[in-house]
C-alpha cells in the first residue's frame, strides 16, 4: 500500500511538473525542493512566562526556506496539533495554481488535526524576501517564518553581492494564550488586549524582563556587507526599525528589487518585507538593532525590541549599546515619507510593465464600523466591525475556490460593489453611530482574464481613522499614487507615477488618506484581498477577486491536487 501511494504521488508529481513546465510557468532548469512542516504544540518561555503554543517543527519562529527564483517547493504540512490550520505563502503568486495559496475558506478548507496536505509552492518572478504564515484565526502569531529567494545561479544582484543573508523577523508575544486573547476579543466586540512584548527573531531583547540572556546577536566582520531580510510579522502595528550608528541601503521590498535608498530607518507594515544592505563600516563594537511601534492612536507597548550587532575582533565592548533614536510613536509623516521613497528599478531603457491604461477602476472605502452588540459578553452597547465598501466579509463554511471550480451554488455572491453605497466626506465627515454600520456578505468581484485594474483605496475616519496595510494574494501590484484626504478622480491621476512605481503586494494606506494600485488580472483563480492588521481582517475588512480563465492553454487554472482538505 505504501509503495502504491508513493507511485501514485510520483505520477501526479510528474504530471503536475509537466503542466507547469509545458505551461511556461517555471523555467525548465528550476529545482524541485522538498521539505516537511509538522504543526505541533511546543512549550516556549518569554518574559518568565512558559506556555504551549502552535509551532512548526517545534520552532518559534519557524524554519527559513531558501530557494532560487523559479524553483518549485513541495512541502508536506502534517497537522499533529489540536487546531485546524492553513499555511499561506505570503507574496508567492502561485501562477494558475491557487490551490496552494493556503487561505482558510477562501482557497482551501483547513487542515484538520491528524490530517496532512502536500502544498506546491510555485515561484515565478519573485526574488528577494517573502514569508510564510498561518492563515487561520490568529495562529500566525506563532506560526511564521522567512522565505529567502536567491537569484538564478548564473545571475547576480543589482547591488554589491552580500557576504551573508540575515533574516530578521519582527514578532509579538502575549503572556496569555493567543487563542484565548482572540476569543475574548471577538466576544467583547472591542479592541484586543495589548501584547506584552515585541520581538526580533523570537526574542524580546534586553530591555524586557527575563530576556537579556536570550537576546538575538548578529556577529559581523568589518568591511563586509550583510543583506538584512526584514519581515514584519507583528499582528496589528506598523514598526520603525533602526540600527545604532549605521546607515543602510534599502534595495528591495515584497520580493522585488528597488532603486537604492540610503537611510537610517525604515517604516514597515504588517505583512511587508524589506531588503536592507548593511555595510559593517563602523568602529568595532556592539550596536543595537531595534524596532519600535508606530501607532496613530490606542494603547500599545512602548518598549523597543532589541538585538545586538557584535563586530568580530579584539576590543572592549560598552556595558550596553546606545539605543538609536526613533521617530515619535505617532509620527505619521515619518511612516508615509519612507514608503513614498520606494521606486522600482525602471529606466528609460528598461521600463516596467505598469498598466498605462485601465479597463476597470474600483473605488474601495476602508472603514471601521459599529453595530449594536446585544450579547452578554459585549463590553458596551456597540461592537466594532470593519469593511470594504461597507461590506464586512463573512467567510463561508465551504471554501470559495472549490465552490467556483465545481460550480457549487449558494457559497458566495458575485455582487461585490465597485463603489461605496453612498458618498460623504470620507476623511473629515461625521456619521451617526446608527449610520456607520456595515452589512455582512460573502461577496466577490469577478474579473475577465487580462483586465487591467486600478483599485483606489480610500481610508475613512469612521472609527477614528487608522492606517490599513492592504495585501492582495496571487499578484504583485504597482503603487502608482498616494495622498492625504479624499481622493480626487480629476486632479490626483495627473500626479500618478507611471514610470517607476514600486512593485509590491502589501501597501499601507495612510490614515485618512488614499492609495492607488494597478495590476493586470492575468493569474486565473480565486484571490483574497484584505487588511493585514489582524483585528481588521477578523472584523471583516476583506474581499475576494475571481479571475476567470483566458482562452489560451497557458491562461487557464490548473486542476486541484488529489489531497485537498475537506470541510
TrEMBL record:
GO terms for molecular function: hydroquinone:oxygen oxidoreductase activity; metal ion binding. InterPro entries: Cu-oxidase-like_N, Cu-oxidase_2nd, Cu-oxidase_C, Cu-oxidase_fam, Cu_oxidase_CS, Cu_oxidase_Cu_BS, Cupredoxin, CuRO_1_LCC. Pfam families: Cu-oxidase (PF00394), Cu-oxidase_2 (PF07731), Cu-oxidase_3 (PF07732). CDD domains: CuRO_1_LCC_plant (cd13849), CuRO_2_LCC_plant (cd13875), CuRO_3_LCC_plant (cd13897). It is an enzyme of class 1 (oxidoreductase). Binds 4 Cu cations per monomer. It catalyses: 4 hydroquinone + O2 = 4 benzosemiquinone + 2 H2O. It comes from Salvia divinorum (Maria pastora). Gene3D superfamilies: Cupredoxins - blue copper proteins. It is found in: Secreted, Extracellular space, Apoplast. Signal peptide: none annotated. One of its GO terms (biological process) is lignin catabolic process. Belongs to the multicopper oxidase family. Keywords: Apoplast, Copper, Glycoprotein, Lignin degradation, Metal-binding, Oxidoreductase, Repeat, Secreted. The keyword Nuclease does not apply. This is Laccase. Its EC number is 1.10.3.2. One of its GO terms (cellular component) is apoplast. Residues 39-152, 166-313, 416-550 form the Plastocyanin-like domain. Its cofactor is Cu cation. Lignin degradation and detoxification of lignin-derived products.
Amino acid at each position: 500500500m505504501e509503495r502504491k501511494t508513493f507511485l501514485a504521488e510520483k505520477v501526479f508529481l510528474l504530471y503536475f511538473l509537466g503542466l507547469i513546465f509545458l505551461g511556461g510557468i517555471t523555467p525548465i532548469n528550476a529545482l524541485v525542493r522538498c521539505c516537511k512542516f509538522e504543526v505541533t504544540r511546543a512549550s516556549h518561555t518569554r518574559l518568565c512566562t512558559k506556555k504551549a503554543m502552535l509551532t512548526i517543527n517545534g520552532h518559534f519562529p519557524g524554519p527559513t526556506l531558501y530557494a532560487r527564483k523559479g524553483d518549485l517547493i513541495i512541502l508536506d504540512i502534517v497537522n499533529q496539533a489540536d487546531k485546524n490550520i492553513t499555511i499561506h505563502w505570503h507574496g508567492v503568486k502561485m501562477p494558475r495554481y491557487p490551490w496552494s495559496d493556503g487561505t482558510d475558506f477562501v482557497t482551501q478548507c483547513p487542515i484538520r488535526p491528524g490530517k496532512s496536505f502536500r502544498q506546491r509552492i510555485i515561484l515565478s518572478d519573485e526574488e528577494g524576501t517573502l514569508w510564510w504564515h498561518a492563515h487561520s484565526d490568529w495562529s500566525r502569531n506563532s506560526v511564521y517564518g522567512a522565505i529567502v529567494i536567491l537569484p538564478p545561479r548564473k545571475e547576480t544582484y543589482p547591488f554589491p553581492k552580500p557576504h551573508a543573508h540575515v533574516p530578521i523577523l519582527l514578532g509579538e508575544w502575549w503572556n496569555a494564550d493567543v487563542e484565548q486573547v482572540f476569543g475574548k476579543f471577538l466576544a467583547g466586540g472591542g479592541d484586543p488586549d495589548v501584547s506584552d512584548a515585541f520581538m526580533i527573531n523570537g526574542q524580546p531583547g534586553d530591555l524586557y524582563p527575563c530576556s537579556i540572556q536570550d537576546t538575538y546577536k548578529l556577529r559581523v566582520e568589518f568591511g563586509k556587507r550583510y543583506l538584512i531580510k526584514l519581515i514584519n510579522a507583528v499582528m496589528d502595528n506598523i514598526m520603525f526599525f533602526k540600527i545604532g550608528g549605521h546607515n543602510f541601503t534599502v534595495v528591495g521590498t515584497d520580493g522585488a528589487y528597488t532603486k537604492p535608498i540610503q537611510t537610517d530607518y525604515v517604516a514597515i507594515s504588517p505583512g511587508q518585507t524589506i531588503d536592507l544592505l548593511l555595510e559593517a563600516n563602523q568602529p568595532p563594537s556592539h550596536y543595537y538593532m531595534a524596532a519600535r511601534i508606530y501607532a496613530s492612536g490606542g494603547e500599545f507597548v512602548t518598549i523597543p525590541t532589541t538585538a545586538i550587532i557584535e563586530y568580530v575582533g579584539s576590543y572592549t565592548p560598552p556595558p550596553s549599546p546606545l539605543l538609536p533614536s526613533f521617530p515619535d510613536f505617532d509620527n505619521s509623516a515619518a511612516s508615509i515619507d519612507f514608503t513614498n521613497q520606494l521606486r522600482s528599478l525602471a529606466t528609460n531603457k528598461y521600463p516596467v510593465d505598469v498598466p498605462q491604461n485601465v479597463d476597470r477602476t474600483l473605488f474601495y472605502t476602508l472603514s471601521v464600523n459599529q453595530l449594536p452588540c446585544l450579547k452578554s459578553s459585549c463590553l458596551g452597547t456597540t461592537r466594532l466591525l470593519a469593511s470594504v465598501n461597507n461590506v464586512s466579509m463573512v467567510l463561508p463554511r465551504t471554501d470559495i475556490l472549490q465552490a467556483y471550480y465545481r460550480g457549487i451554488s449558494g457559497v458566495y455572491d458575485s455582487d461585490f460593489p465597485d463603489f461605496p453605497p453612498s458618498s460623504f466626506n470620507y476623511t473629515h465627515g461625521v456619521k451617526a453611530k446608527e449610520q456607520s454600520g456595515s452589512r455582512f456578505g460573502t461577496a466577490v468581484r469577478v474579473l475577465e482574464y487580462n483586465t487591467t485594474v486600478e483599485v483606489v483605496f480610500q481610508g475613512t475616519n469612521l472609527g477614528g481613522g487608522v492606517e490599513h496595510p492592504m495585501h492582495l494574494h496571487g499578484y504583485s501590484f504597482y503603487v502608482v499614487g498616494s495622498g492625504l484626504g479624499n481622493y480626487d478622480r480629476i486632479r490626483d491621476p495627473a500626479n500618478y507615477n507611471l514610470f517607476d512605481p514600486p512593485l509590491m503586494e502589501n501597501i499601507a494606506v495612510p490614515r485618512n488618506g488614499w492609495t492607488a494600485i494597478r495590476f493586470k488580472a492575468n493569474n486565473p483563480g480565486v484571490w483574497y484581498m484584505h487588511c493585514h492588521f489582524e483585528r481588521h481582517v477578523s472584523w471583516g475588512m476583506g474581499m475576494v477577486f475571481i479571475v476567470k480563465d483566458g482562452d489560451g492553454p497557458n491562461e487557464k487554472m490548473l486542476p486541484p491536487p488529489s489531497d485537498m482538505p475537506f470541510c
